[in-house]
Amino acid sequence: MFQEFKVMKTRCETALSRSGLPGLDYALNPYVGCSHACIYCYARLYTRNRDVGSNWGRIILVKENIVDVLRREVAKYPRGVVGIGTVTDAYQPVEAVYKLTRRSLEVLLRHGFHVSIQTKNPLVLRDMDLLVTHRDLVDVGFTITTLDYRASIQIEPHAPPPNARLKALEKLVEENIASWIFYGPIIPGINSDPDTVRSMVDIAKKLNIVLYYDVLHVKSFMNTPTHPLYNYIEKTRRERRRIMELIETECRRQKVTCRTGFSEG
Ligand code: SF4
């Protein structure tokens, strides 16, 4: 599951960027590239570093000065909601070594910024002390695309397995951390079947949390016969509406709040 990747240091001029995502004022991404290497990951399109984009998952840039830059910014920027991991997963394996996400969290929370984290990695539980102490300032979402390990390996080859993500999400809820689940991207033929839809709504129901979902957005890099998603593109275009209705219907039936969202990465 774990893959080798090359780590390179880089320096950043800004830590917080303005976010156009709903509900977020700022975005913070301590790493460029993501070793979870999901085959659908859109983030490769947004990195300016060509090597990182074309070797997705195998090169990670660490913004070594991000915490110092952030300290200066929080002193002058108005407080707001900061999305952590809006482009790449801030709790990917490299974070276990560099702790840039943790140190950024400390700065943001100490200065009264609200933090919204989205991840696939249970490493976020390492920072439970901060999350619990600043409960009123945090929310955490876990991306779970399927509960089927084989399907997960097919689309998210180096991300933690779904059962580990589910356990971590349960732990967050147990600790009364505002939490949510993101089911996406939904790919017809891989994780769009009624059983998967029902199981995702079941999780949201059982944990009493909001379910966000999103159907795959077809991007140019998928539209080549050698890409593993190539054969799913036409189906995605045809079935988007049907899948959304399936989810909305199941959520109404189970009285679960669901919203469409847009996945990180
Ligand atoms: S989708 Fe998210 S977790 Fe997967 S590679 Fe992209 S940034 Fe990482």
Automatic annotation (TrEMBL):
The keyword Acetylation does not apply. Keywords: Iron, Iron-sulfur, Metal-binding. This is Radical SAM domain protein. Pfam families: Radical_SAM (PF04055). Residues 20-259 form the Radical SAM core domain. GO terms for molecular function: catalytic activity; iron-sulfur cluster binding; metal ion binding. It comes from Desulfurococcus amylolyticus DSM 16532. PANTHER family: RADICAL SAM CORE DOMAIN-CONTAINING PROTEIN, SLR0285 PROTEIN. The lineage of its organism: Archaea, Thermoproteota, Thermoprotei, Desulfurococcales, Desulfurococcaceae. PROSITE patterns: RADICAL_SAM. InterPro entries: MJ0683-like, rSAM, rSAM_sf.
